[in-house]
Specification:
The chain is 74% helix and 0% strand. By secondary structure, it is an all-alpha fold. This is Lipoprotein.
């Protein structure tokens, strides 16, 4: 075999190894919480001499397919003779571009950007009075503006639900909350505020739309936060049930009982208080900071109900379920520890 062939073979193997390592690294990102829960349950069940439970860790979010979230937006048809009668406005070229084959196949975010530009140019054209002598055209242009302003919220709705970046960021992730800077929470809060703000103030927010969409697809903090709530709820509910059964026969009357409870308390402190509860505290902060923005989505009449109801299920009801599971777990341990006080 020639040196050139050996070199190519070696390079190909190195590329495969590097790709595999990158894949493993991607799979292992944002796994602090499930690892902590596994460690906690394994240690605690072993100390309590309980049968180990295979608690599900999938925590899958059940969003409907994107197609089911789409809204039909009425088209505004402009007659060609009316179109060519427009004078002295940049709107002419913009409408011509939209009518090309390429212009009709637009990503949801590109469509929203186009619609805002059209509205802005229409308003400026009307305000300039360039076409004021043509009374019929002037009335038509004001009617076009009114119609475009009316359907803009619907196109904004489709930008949210039909953009791959936002849909993935809110519905799908392999990771969970880490409780540190790796969560990219600051970016997540800004991105959500920015996309929601476009509806009411596009002039101030639309320029950052594409950057926010790209950022959301990368950090996916909304999906990771909601998956973390599901994971914690499922783990803690099952552990609370199992440990409560054990506690029903534990009286802490002997020295051996007290020594065992001291070991149990140590495991609880090291693996629950120091690790899991710390992540939970960060999750609570994320929830309360994001809550006003998600409430805006839930209460928005232009968004489809099957979307807003799912957002409410995870951002509000899911948070309540997780908090109740956390509280019940802590209260159970408080009652157990009191037996030896």
């Amino acid at each position: 075999m020639s040196r050139q062939k050996i070199s190519k073979t070696t390079m190909a193997r190195l590329i495969c190894v590097a790709s595999f390592l990158l894949f493993l690294q991607a799979c292992q990102r944002h796994q602090t919480l499930p690892n902590a829960l596994e460690n906690y349950s394994d240690r605690m069940y072993k100390v309590l001499e309980l049968e180990q439970k295979n608690i599900p860790t999938t925590a899958t979010l059940a969003f409907q397919d994107k197609i089911a979230l789409a809204i039909d937006v009425p088209e505004l048809n402009i007659k060609m003779r009316e179109f060519y009668a427009i004078e002295g406005c940049a709107i002419k070229q913009l409408i011509a571009e939209r009518n090309t084959a390429l212009g009709k196949i637009q990503l949801p975010s590109v469509r929203l950007g186009y619609e805002w530009t059209l509205i802005d140019l229409l308003r400026k054209c009307i305000d300039s009075n360039v076409n004021s002598e043509n009374k019929t055209l002037a009335v038509k242009m004001r009617d076009w503006l009114s119609q475009k302003q009316a359907i803009f919220p619907l196109i904004w709705s489709n930008m949210l639900t039909q953009s791959d970046e936002f849909y993935l960021g809110i519905s799908s992730s392999a990771g969970f909350i880490d409780g540190n800077e790796n969560d990219n929470f600051t970016d997540g809060l800004f991105d959500l505020k920015n996309l929601i703000g476009i509806k009411e103030d596009p002039a101030a927010n639309i320029a950052s739309m594409e950057a926010s969409l790209k950022s959301i697809q990368q950090h996916r903090i909304y999906a990771r936060l909601w998956r973390s709530q599901l994971l914690l709820r499922d783990y803690l509910q099952q552990m609370t049930i199992d440990i409560s059964v054990w506690a029903s026969t534990f009286t802490c009357e002997t020295r051996k009982d007290k020594e065992k409870l001291a070991i149990i308390r140590n495991v609880f402190t090291l693996f629950f208080i120091d690790e899991i509860q710390g992540i939970g505290a960060q999750m609570n902060q994320y929830h309360y900071a994001l809550k006003p923005e998600f409430l805006k989505l839930i209460d928005d009449n232009h968004l489809p109900h099957n979307f807003t109801s799912t957002v409410e299920q995870y951002s509000q009801l899911g948070f309540d379920d997780y908090q109740n599971a956390m509280l019940a777990h802590i209260e159970m341990w408080q009652d157990i520890f009191k037996k030896c006080d």
